[in-house]
Structures are given as C-alpha cells and as structure tokens.
Amino acid sequence: MGDLVTERLVLHPMTVGEAERVVIGDPGGGARWAPGYPTDGDVSAARRFLGTCANTGDPQPFGNYEIRRREDGQAIGGLGFHGPADASGSVTIGYGLIPSARGKGYASEALRGLLLFARARGVTCVKGDADHDNIASQHVMMAVGMQAAGQDDRFRYFEIAWTDRHDGAY
Questions:
Q1: How far apart are CA 156 and CA 87, in angstroms?
Q2: What PROSITE patterns does this protein's entry cite (predicted)?
Q3: What does the alpha-carbon distance between residue 140 and residue 57 come to, in Å, rounded to a whole number?
Q4: Mean pLDDT of 109-125
Q5: Does 111 fall in a domain?
Q6: Would residue 167 count as lying in a domain?
Q7: Is residue 169 part of a domain?
Q8: What is the pLDDT of residues 65-96, one digit of tens each?
Q9: CA dist 49 to 87, 90, 127, Å?
C-alpha cells in the first residue's frame, strides 16, 4: 500500500512499527515528527490500529494514515478508518492535527483525499462525528461535502453518501 498524495500532504499508511512508536512516543526509525506530534488522539488511534492488527490482521487500505507535510516530510497529525466497510459499504473516519497545523486547510485537504480514496474503492457512505464544541472539526466535514446527520448529548454526526458510480469527483 503506497502513500496517498495531495497538493500539500502525504497520507502515509501507518505500519505496526510506526504505530508502536507513536504509542510509546519514540520517533525513532527515521520518523520526522513536528513539535506536538503525536497528540493524545494520535496515540489512541494507533492503539486501536494495533488492536485491530493483533485481532484480525492489518486492515489496510482501511487503516490509519499519518498526515505529513510534503514540504518538509514532518508528521502533523493522523486520519483513518475505524475499520473496513460494512455490508452496506459504509465506513467511519476520524482525523486530527497538532495545534500548530490547524487553521491552514490541512484537515480538509487530508479528509478530501481520504474520501476520494474510499469512494474509488467502492465505499458508498463515509461517517464521522465531532464533539458539540469542536466547531472547527464540524466545519472540516462540511467543507468536504459531509452533511449533518444527527446528534446526541456528546456528538454531532456527519456523513456523505454516493449512489452513483465514482467519476473522480464528489
């Protein structure tokens, strides 16, 4: 599985070794981490990824991706799938950036790239959520075409669904 490349970013499929380093906070192995990486969310996602790998095998291409800036190769966050598509073709995603990388359009760019990737692989619906007070994350999902799909006491839920064949755009 190769890297996904967008205009300014590289979405690098995380390996077991990379996830283990994120969990222990050791950038060894030549990793280039921007200051503040990994966040607690990155560590949590890496743990979930490692659990999936241990229980059912590597979920790639529906695993975790490290978000790296193309200009310097530094990891600034992560995004990925919470698992493979279900029987109806639906997946759930999550993402996050270090504080210094926020507000520059990186999250929208990364999520847009992941949506195109998912759609090209037959996914028919992508879901995500954000805490009620995480307005920035809600804006990211809306910026890439996801629509509000409900809420509960903690989260607002978003999704995008496709009923036609993928034509390279959404």
A1: 24
A2: GNAT
A3: 31
A4: 96
A5: yes
A6: no
A7: no
A8: 999 999 999 999 999 999 889 999 999 999 99
A9: 21, 18, 18
Q: What range defines the domain where residue 60 resides? A: 4-161
The mean pLDDT of 133-138, rounded to a whole number, is 96
CB 18 within 8 A of CB 47: no
137 lies in some domain: yes
Is 74 in contact with 33 (CB distance < 8 Å)? yes
- Counting the structural domains of the chain, the total is 1
CATH number assigned to the domain comprising residue 112:
3.40.630.30
Residue 52 tokens read as 């999936």
Q: What is the DSSP string of 83-150?
A: SS--TTSEEEEEEEE-GGGTTSSHHHHHHHHHHHHHHHTT--EEEEEEETT-HHHHHHHHHTT-EEEE
> What is the residue type of 115?
L
> Exposed, middle or buried, 95 (CB in 10 Å: 0-12/13-18/19+)?
buried
Structure tokens, 126: 């992508």
pTM of structure: 0.92
- Coil/strand/helix, residue 49: helix
- Dmax over CA atoms of the chain, in Å, equals 44
Q: State residue 165's pLDDT score.
A: 55
Q: Are 88 and 52 in contact, with CB atoms under 8 Å apart? A: no
